[in-house]
Design goal:
Helix 2 runs antiparallel to helix 9 and helix 3 packs parallel to helix 4. The protein is globular. The protein has two domains: 255 residues, 3-Layer(aba) Sandwich (Rossmann fold); 86 residues, no CATH class. Strands 1-2-5-4-3-6-7-14-13 form a nine-stranded mixed beta sheet, with helices on both faces. It is 32% helix and 23% strand. The chain is built from ten helices and 14 strands. Tryptophan binds next to helix 9 and strand 12.
Length: 395
Amino acid sequence: MTSRTPATAPETIPVPGRQPHPATATNGSDPSGRPDKPARTDQTPQITVDRHLTAAERHASLAADMRAGLTSHPRELPPKWFYDATGSLLFDRITRLPEYYPTRREHAVLTAHAAEIAAVCPAGTLIELGSGTSEKTRLLLDALRATGVLRRFVPFDVDEETLLQAGQDILRAYPGISVHAVVGDFERHLGLLPGARPAADTGAAAGAGAAGAAGADGGHGEGRGDRRLVAFLGGTIGNLRPAARGAFLRALSDQFADGDALLLGADLVKDPRRLVAAYDDSAGVTAAFNRNVLSVINRELGADFDLRGFAHVAAWDAENSWIEMRLRSVREQEVGVRALDLVARFDADEQMRTEISAKFTLDSIAAELAAAGLSVSHQWTDPDGDFALTLAVPS
Ligand code: SAH
Ligand code: TRP
């Protein structure tokens, strides 16, 4: 099992905007039924935050990624750096574009099957990787809360600002559910997820109420603490290359206990024209999103990319079954990156890869999960078969 050594001590931050009567509340009515909770005099609801990615670490990691990416042939910039506050805002606009069907389709699948998901995996803890605004996740929170077992939500994202905002919104909307936000990189920090239990742990410490209810399910294991449902939505799995996907799924599977489950959202192969349109919308929002990575480098590494000097490209790669996003240098140009002490020369029409978005079949999803030690428990799609949700459990 994974050892737990948080890089930084968790801290709590107060949530503005909703203030119960500070003098009256006590722990007597704590709906979670947790034993031994120290009495709090300050009743401001708090979210707990783990930071595995400090500003310094983020900077070092960005610098290393960009040096590697700008000096490779062809050039290639790693996608997680799209998501600063502006990037997350632009992504949010993408999800509302007429051409961008995945969010609406996934929303439809969740609406149709959230109750069934909660029945199959009545989790005490819902973890969401790459959580962003966690909008669709409310469907899962609603369904899990209805089972009476849910006590904690753990959103996990690299973009701290969006993460904390979403965490606070959810804390306010779901009284009695605690929010434990994690700022981290899901390719590096999965071993530090809250609730990872040592192998010998019987789960008794996790809370009598939750353990009792989860343990009553006859499916897996006995005497466990609360189950964890890990949601990875939005087709973000497709933004990892095949080897990275394999490593990610294996890291997740390695720390699963019996009863834990993965809910994976993945976009499915379809008419390439629809795929390309989803990544090259007529309003140019995806183009702005793609170019935003250059603003991130300008701001954080002192580069002087001229955003007008790069055009957005989205192409379907049938062989690899992915959409590839690139930035094309519209002219010959030189770009300085001060923090890297580097000058990058671009030829006219040179294309730099920025992102892939892989598209799957139901079988290819099952095969990749199986290779990581996970087996499909359920698979659902929207009525048009555009997008799939897969519920997977340790094999
Ligand atoms: N789950 C949301 C958002 C998807 S966008 C939805 O379905 O709409 C992808 C999200 O993953 C962004 O919020 C981004 O910040 C986050 N992300 C991307 N790479 C990441 C990484 N390596 N580690 C953690 N979060 C990451
Ligand atoms: N996970 C999303 C997807 O692959 C992310 C995304 C949507 C994206 N549009 C994009 C990433 C454009 C880069 C560029 O569908």
